[in-house]
Design a protein that fits this description.
This protein is an alpha/beta fold and 301 residues long. The chain contains 12 helices and 7 strands.
Length: 301
C-alpha cells in the first residue's frame, strides 16, 4: 500500500519537546493522521510503546513498520477501554492534533470543504451513517439554528436555519454548491470564505460529534496520565481551544475555578506556557494551514 504522507504537522518540534519523551515511556497519539507526530515519538523511544488512534481507515497507508507502535482504527473516545484491554494502566503523555488532515480536506469526495463542489459528506469515519446532507435534511429549524450558533459561532444562525428549512422543501441540499446557494445571501462582503468556513465547520463538528467526543477523551486522559504526565493538544478554532484551555486550567469545561481555604486554585494540572504556543511566521510561510494552530500543554499534578 502506498504511503500518503498527507499531513504536515503544525508545531511539530514544539509538540515533541512538550511531551518530554522518555525512551522507556508509554505515549498515546489519539490523532494519528499522516503519522508525523507518531514518527517523531517513535524515533525517541527505545523500550517504550506508542499507542495511536485514528478512526479514518485511509490513515492505514501511513503506518510505519515499528514494533513499538500499536495502531487502533478507532475514535479516541475509546481511549481508556483500549488501554485497559492492552493491560496499560497509565501513560506518560498524550498528544492530540485536532485539525482535519490535508487528505480529508483535499479529497473532494470527503466533502470537508466548500472549495470543491462535492457531496456534503464530512464523515471522518466513513463507516458512520449520518452525513452533513442528512443533517441538513432531517434536523428541525431550531436544531439547525443551535448547530450554527454553537459550532459555527454564527450570529445570524436563526436566519440561516430558516433559509435552509425553506429551501429544502423545494429541493434537497446535497452538494457544497447547494448550501452556498442557499445561505450565500448572509455572507458578509469580502468575508465570504470565512463565513462559508464557519458553516462547514459547524456541520463537520456535528457530523463527527467532535466536541462531545473531545470532552470524553480529555476526561479519560486525565484518568490515565501518570503524575507529571504531559497532555499536549493542538487546537484550530476558538470553540475547541476554549474547551481545552478551561479543562487544563480548572479540570472542568466551563472554566469554573474552585479554590481551597487558602485561596489556591484546585486543579489537576500545572499549565505549561499559559497562553499557548503559536506557529512562527517561518512555519506559517511554509505551511499556511498552521496559521490558526495553538498548542496547549499541561502536566498532571
Amino acid at each position: 500500500m502506498k504511503e500518503l504522507y498527507y499531513h504536515i504537522p503544525a508545531l511539530l518540534d514544539e509538540t515533541i519537546r512538550a511531551l518530554k519523551i522518555k525512551p522507556d515511556g508509554i505515549y498515546v497519539d489519539v490523532t494519528f493522521g499522516g503519522g508525523g507526530h507518531s514518527r517523531e515519538i517513535l524515533r525517541r523511544l527505545k523500550t517504550g510503546k506508542l499507542i495511536a488512534f485514528d478512526q479514518d481507515e485511509d490513515v492505514k497507508a501511513n503506518l510505519p513498520e515499528d514494533s513499538k507502535l500499536i495502531f487502533l482504527n478507532q475514535n479516541f473516545r475509546f481511549l481508556k477501554n483500549n488501554l485497559k484491554f492492552l493491560g496499560i494502566q497509565s501513560i506518560d503523555g498524550l498528544v492530540a492534533d485536532l485539525g482535519v488532515s490535508f487528505h480529508q480536506f483535499d479529497e473532494p469526495e470527503r466533502g470537508f470543504t466548500f472549495r470543491n463542489d462535492a457531496a456534503l459528506d464530512m464523515r471522518m469515519n466513513k463507516k458512520s451513517k449520518v452525513t452533513a446532507a442528512d443533517l441538513l435534511r432531517s434536523l428541525s429549524e431550531k436544531d439547525l439554528a443551535n448547530l450554527f450558533s454553537e459550532y459555527g459561532e454564527l450570529i445570524n444562525a436563526k436566519k440561516i436555519a430558516h433559509e435552509i428549512v425553506t429551501a429544502r422543501t423545494v429541493m434537497p441540499i446535497l452538494k457544497a454548491s447547494d448550501i452556498i446557494n442557499v445561505v450565500g445571501k448572509f455572507a458578509p462582503a469580502r468575508l465570504e470564505n470565512k463565513f462559508y468556513a464557519k458553516v462547514f465547520q459547524a456541520l463537520r463538528i456535528a457530523v463527527n460529534h467532535e466536541i462531545e467526543y473531545l470532552k470524553e477523551m480529555l476526561q479519560q486522559a486525565l484518568e490515565v496520565l501518570k503524575k507529571d504526565g504531559r497532555l499536549v493538544v493542538i487546537t484550530y478554532h476558538s470553540l475547541e481551544d476554549r474547551l481545552v484551555k478551561n479543562f487544563m486550567k480548572t479540570g472542568n469545561f466551563q472554566g469554573e475555578e474552585q479554590r481551597d481555604f487558602y485561596g489556591n486554585l484546585i486543579t489537576p494540572f500545572r499549565l505549561i506556557e499559559k497562553k499557548g504556543i503559536v506557529p512562527t511566521k517561518e512555519e506559517i510561510d511554509e505551511n499556511s494551514r498552521a496559521r490558526s494552530a495553538r498548542l496547549r500543554v499541561a502536566e498532571k499534578i
